[in-house]
Structure formats: C-alpha cells, structure tokens
Design goal:
Elements (H helix, E strand, L loop, with lengths): L4 H18 L5 E4 L5 E5 L10 E4 H10 L2 E3 L6 E3 L1 H11 L4 H4 L4 E7 L5 E7 L4 H10 L5 H23 L18 H9 L3
Antiparallel strand pairs: 1-2, 2-3, 4-5, 6-7
Length: about 190
C-alpha cells in the first residue's frame, strides 16, 4: 500500500488535533464503537461524539513513540509526560525545546539608553527555579566532601607510587638473560642519541 504525501500530512494533522484534545483535563483515548478506530472522549464518556478520531495504526504509532500511555480502564489511553512535552514543543512559537519545560514569560526591560525592549524568560516558579534553589544552598553534605577528599588523597598517593616507589637498583625479574643488566642501564641507554 503506497502512502501519498497528502495522506501522510492528513495523518499528522489528525494526530496533532487528537493530542490537543487529549491534553484537555480528563480526556481519554478509547476504542470507537466500530472497532477500527479510536476517539478522544471527554472524561472517557463514549456516549458522546468523539472530539477527534485516530486509526488503530496511528494509536499504535503514538504508543510506540511514548506520546500516550495506557490508562486505568482497559483499552484506553491518556497523554503521557513525554506527550505533554511533545504538545508544548509543537505549540511553541519561540524556543520550542525550552517551552516543553514550562511557561516562557515576556517582560519589558530598560537598557542603558533608557529604551524599553521585550525579553523572554523562564517562569520564576518553574523547574529551573527549583534547580536555582539547590545551587544557592550546600550542594554536597559535609560527609560527601570528606569522602571525596579521602578518595583524592588515596588516588594521589597511588599515582605517586608509580614514580617514587620504583627501585632502579633492583635486578630484573625473571631467569632468562636479557642483555644489559637493569632498568637503570636501560634508561641510560635510551637517553643515548648515537
């Protein structure tokens, strides 16, 4: 079966419409009476007309992409967390990646010349504000800092042992003869340029 560009575009538009309707509080994606499609129903009420319809293939595709997740009722689906982020990205006109994490607000700011200009930024109460509060306080506990310091000291000592712990006067290990005597001679011979 060959899918035309128009059919693919209609499918995308149908999915966008269905996801927009599914974002309404309490909406569920449930099988339609005919069994060949699914519909978005307000509060899962299948007695009413569906707000949007999707084919079974489109539902399986959205489920595979993680945009929808199974709901409490058998055979029904709801918008998942990644689905809400997808909707926010799709609806954003500016900085879609940032819009999926929270509301962007626009404010007027005065520059040095006294001219007002619009700027956009994160909502002060969003997830970035929670990260900022973590940064203001102590990020690591005192015991974590002490453990890191001990680990660093042990690592430094172990690395120092590679140089300071070498015995250049010791005979080479093994019983087979290898030419010049020890590691000291090998190092001296390696420095000769001729």
């Amino acid at each position: 079966m060959k899918i035309t560009a128009e059919a693919a575009e209609l499918s995308i538009l149908r999915r966008r419409k269905a996801l927009a309707r599914l974002a309404i509080d309490g909406a569920l994606l449930a099988p339609a009476r005919d069994g060949r499609s699914h519909g978005v129903f307000t509060k899962g009420d299948r007695r009413r007309r569906a707000l949007a319809k999707l084919s079974n293939e489109e539902v399986h595709l959205l489920l595979a992409e993680g945009v929808i997740a199974r709901a409490a009722f058998a055979g029904t689906y709801r918008l998942s967390g990644p689905g809400h982020a997808f909707r926010a990205r799709d609806a954003a006109d500016f900085m879609p990646w940032r819009a999926q994490h929270g509301v962007l607000v626009e404010r007027q700011v005065m520059n040095d010349a006294g001219v007002f200009r619009p700027v956009r930024g994160a909502d002060p109460g969003g997830p970035f504000a929670r990260l900022q509060r973590v940064a203001e306080g102590d990020f690591f506990a005192a015991r974590e800092v002490a453990a890191a310091r001990t680990l660093w000291e042990d690592w430094t000592k172990s690395q120092r042992g590679l140089i300071a712990g070498s015995n250049w006067t010791a005979p080479p290990r093994g019983s087979a003869s290898r030419g010049p005597g020890g590691a000291q001679e090998t190092a001296a011979n390696g420095a000769i340029d001729a």
